[in-house]
Design a protein that fits this description.
Elements lengths: L5 E7 L32 E6 L7 H4 L2 E3 L19 E6 L2 E4 L6 E5 L5 E5 L30 E8 L5 E4 L6 H8 L17 E6 L5 E6 L14 H6 L6 E7 L5 H15 L1 H4 L3 E6 L6 H11 L8 E2 L8 H18 L12
Parallel strand pairs: 1-3, 2-4, 9-11, 9-12, 12-13, 13-14
Antiparallel strand pairs: 1-8, 2-7, 5-6, 5-8, 10-11
Length: 345
């Protein structure tokens, strides 16, 4: 299934049915009086977060969603049927914006969460409603109220516990394929990954977390260079960032600084999230060369970078342990749980 994280759709709620002008006509009933029924209410347009979806691809092929109009009123005080609602089934993590793409309508972060996007119009009154002591035979009925209509934007932001960051070809997809059951595309050229991917890391009973693989970022991503601005949106919900740096490149310090600058430019709050930094692909260098890269990285990074290799799995266990530790600390702060024991891969 093709990944799509943004779509524009048109929604329209149903108009109300018209009221009816009718009079009771029965044999041996001299003064029947008015008996026109009201029109039915138009259908609403709802958005609902459901399980089993991770893309907005369905909204690429159908952009118009219109609820049914309410039925018209009829004689014998029969009210028209209500119009059927329309429900937009969306993946968890979808944000709904007005047409200006800035005004947030709703953020669907939990399964089953529903929000009313367009309310159906009220049905018109039949002539029974206008009966009074001074007007016992009204010939008046109201038309139904028109429904609401507008364009909206749907924007999906993946919900994951931890996110993989790095420049193109840093080995993020390989790392994801090693630690989870995900099968991302892997190749020896940059920009292999064009769409974000998710995988579940299982470190033992009670210790699982969702890891997101974000396509490689480039300089200027926060200002929209490439597709970086949209990619950065997918790590906004991550609690911990795992920053992979290709140690075979010449300037590892510059690679680290580039990603940090983009995080700061995009969202200072995102840049403050706990970060685990790892030099990847150490299997491709000699130990003394790896030591030189670590020394260079420490000129811009205060901590001690982890040394890992996604291909040989060296250091992978320690990296996952560090991510799990940060998640456990966050969970304690949120009173959402405690650290759990984990077993090696």
């Amino acid at each position: 299934m093709k990944f799509l994280d943004q779509a524009k759709v048109f929604i329209k709620s149903g108009g109300g049915g018209a009221g009816c002008v009718s009079f009771r006509r029965e044999k041996y009933v001299e003064y029947g009086g008015p008996n026109g029924g009201d029109g039915g209410r138009g259908g609403d347009v709802w958005a609902e977060a459901v399980e089993g979806l991770n893309t907005l691809i369905d909204y690429r092929y159908q952009q118009h969603y219109k609820a049914k109009r309410g039925g018209h009123g009829m004689g014998k005080e029969r009210t028209g049927a209500g119009g059927d609602d329309v429900v937009l089934k969306l993946p968890v993590g979808t944000q709904i914006f007005e047409e200006d793409q800035e005004t947030l309508i709703a953020d669907l972060t939990e399964v089953g969460q529903r929000v009313l996007l367009a309310e159906g119009g009220n049905g018109g009154w039949g002539n029974t409603r206008f009966k009074s002591s001074t007007n016992q035979a009204p010939r008046r009925a109201n038309p139904g109220e028109e429904g609401e209509e507008r364009w909206i934007w749907l924007r999906l932001k993946l919900i994951a516990d931890a996110g993989l960051l790095g420049l193109p070809n840093a080995g993020k997809s390989t790392f994801l394929s090693v630690v989870t059951a995900a099968t991302p595309k892997i190749a020896d050229y940059p920009f292999t990954t064009l769409n974000p991917g998710l995988g579940v890391v299982d470190l033992g009973p009670g210790s699982r977390f969702v890891l997101a693989d974000i396509p490689g970022l480039i300089e200027g991503a926060a200002e929209g260079a490439g597709l970086g601005h949209r990619f950065l949106g997918h790590v906004e919900r991550c609690k911990v960032l795992l920053h992979l740096i290709d140690c075979t490149q010449d300037d590892v310090a510059g690679a680290y600084t580039t990603i940090r600058n983009e995080l700061e430019a995009y969202s200072p709050e995102l840049a403050q999230r706990p970060e685990v930094v790892a030099l990847n692909k150490i299997d491709a260098l000699l130990p003394e060369q790896v030591a030189e890269q670590v020394t260079q990285l420490k000129t811009v990074y205060d901590g001690e970078p982890l040394l890992i290799s996604g291909v040989t799995r060296v250091g992978v266990k320690k990296a996952l342990s560090e991510v799990s530790r940060h998640l456990g600390l966050i969970a304690e702060e949120e009173n959402a749980g405690e650290d759990a024991d984990w077993t090696p891969l």
